[in-house]
Amino acid sequence: MANQIRPKVVMQMELRMGATDRIREVADVIIDPTFEAAIGADVIVPGSIRVDAALLDRVGPNLKLVAKPGIGVDSVDIPACTAHQVLLVNTPDAPTESTAEHAVALLMAVAKRVMVGDMYLRSDRTIPRAEMIGTELLGSTLGVVGYGRIGRRVAEICALGLRMNVLVYDPYISLDQPTPERVTLTDNLDGLLRQSQFVTVHVPLTPNTRHYIGEREMRLMAPGSYLVNASRGPVVDEAALIRLLQEGHFAAVGLDVFDPEPPHPDNPLLQMRNVVVTPHIASSTDRGIHAMMHGVADQVIQVLNRERPPHLLNPEVWPGRVLG
Known about the structure:
CATH superfamily of the largest domain: NAD(P)-binding Rossmann-like Domain
CATH topology of the largest domain: Rossmann fold
CATH class of the largest domain: Alpha Beta
Number of domains: 2
Shape: elongated
Strand order of the largest sheet: 8-7-6-9-10-11-12
Strand content: 15-25%
Distance between the termini: 19 Å
Helix content: 25-40%
């Protein structure tokens, strides 16, 4: 047993808060931002790098698991992992609360003109007071597009906490399921957009959701409405969003994500006073990061111990190469 070869785990970046150290107890860990060292790995933990068939072929037949921190896997070719009999896991529960709270924070920041008031006091006393008049949320209508883990939590916070009237659209849910007070499910996205003074987007990025909120959808929203996106940048047509903002269609917009990321310094969105921006940090909280990091470590260790991990995105592959 003393000469037993330890598994090889290659990470694009170190898992923080002690998670990497847990994996080092059972495997040899290599941190390599380029993934050049990934050849022969048993497990890879990618960050922003694209995981496709070419990468899987390059890593080779020892690869058993791709472990992605967080909920988004738009940078991973899931069918390619399945075809290669490689397991794919994420940590879908970990960022839920942090991301939902951040979306609500953006919602309140744009409604209450927080950033404009900050700019006025810090650097620009020429901003007129009229530009700092906010919108009261009580009793107003919020449209939630996407009712997964994060969308559900946003709807709950806004309905029960802020007492907003919440409309929810998600084509993959049953309309007869129970909902919190003030939350109504609808199968009519156009109607939701027309009726909602505020809209927040919480759908995953897939080929079908790229520009899901395009110019047509944005123009259905009433002049003076608000849009928040804390999902993925390409879900909203950014060029169309800029045009409508320049036309004065929206009262304000809150964005944690862009297309591409990071946004170019001359992106017009960064110059607009009625746009609140954050650099894709919605899930970056103490608890959120800990849950993502250790959620990956848990599942890596389980696979190396030949145990089935809980968050398989291609469960039909199990056990894949694990028992080979």
